[in-house]
Amino acid sequence: MEKCQAWRKEHKSCNLEIIKHSIKNMTNNNNSQNGSTPLTTKGFAMPSLIAIIALVIVVGGIGYFATRTKPSSTAATQTPAGEKTLPDDTVVKADSTTVKPDGTMVKPDGTMIKPDGTMVKPDGTMEKKEGETAMNPSTGSGQEKMMAKYTGAVLAGKSAPLLDFTKADYDEAVKSDKLVVLYFYANWCPICKVEFPLAQAAFNELTTDKVVGFRVNYKDSDTDADEVALARQFGVAYQHTKVFLKNGKQILKAPDSWDNKRYNIEINKAINQ
């Protein structure tokens, strides 16, 4: 048995060779003590064999469960150190880079990268994702200078932009002395689909820079929390409602449908009042 134990210690595993080796030594020992012929399965050999097999299974099982790899508790996905999420779902990274819910990234130096890959530098220079310079406020046209500062998509307008609503653009417009025109739009509304192109045409005809318009999503699949709050603020009950603001105050609210001519009349009247 001492030879068997030494062999097992050297090879550090329990297998069929261990069993065979143990049986051979056991049989030799018994033969030498009794001076008889080798034991048969009818004698002591069979119980010994069963006991050794049982021992091998137990030891092997203990070794397996003791050494198998356990899942690491650190494997689960964790928020990177120093990163936090604000109530509006804006993510602030450890280096102070912010990522807005719409995917817009603002770096610590003020550089803005839009979801489509367009980069807006702190000086207003815009670069397309391919690297081609799109506009520079110091060298571009008046329209380019105007458009460079907005984060929302420009839907119409040469002098006065009609923008897809973003809270950042809206807050800046309200602080200014410009007339702010809000159009509450639902992508499922047939009236909106007919009327909004007329609003776009009216903005394309404007020659003043004293107006900023916004298409505000209303109770549709594109509506975000800021747009819901805005509709609630002005008590909007129907899509295709128009709201005019001047110096931060509401001066008009109209839920009826307008044509191109009506838009021009109402906008010019509001500018001059």
What is the count of DSSP helices, taking H or I runs of 4+ residues?
8
> What is the CATH superfamily label of the largest domain?
Glutaredoxin
Q: Tell me, briefly, the overall form.
A: elongated
Task: Tell me the major beta sheet.
Answer: 8 strands, antiparallel
DSSP strand content = 15-25%
Structural class: alpha+beta
Low-confidence stretches: 36-42, 72-77, 129-142
Can you give me a brief rundown of this structure?
With 273 residues, this protein is an alpha+beta fold. The protein is 38% helix and 18% strand.
Explain what this protein looks like in three dimensions:
- Helix content is 38%, strand content 18%.
- It is α+β, with helices and mostly antiparallel strands.
- The protein has helices at residues 2-11, 16-34, 45-67, 142-147, 167-175, 190-205, 225-233, 260-272, and strands at 84-85, 91-92, 98-99, 105-106, 112-113, 119-120, 126-127, 133-135, 154-156, 162-164, 179-185, 211-217, 242-246, 249-254.
- Residues 36-42, 72-77 and 129-142 have low confidence and may be disordered.
Main traits of this protein?
elongated; 3 domains; single chain; 273 residues; six-stranded mixed beta sheet; 14 strands; alpha+beta; Glutaredoxin; eight-stranded antiparallel beta sheet
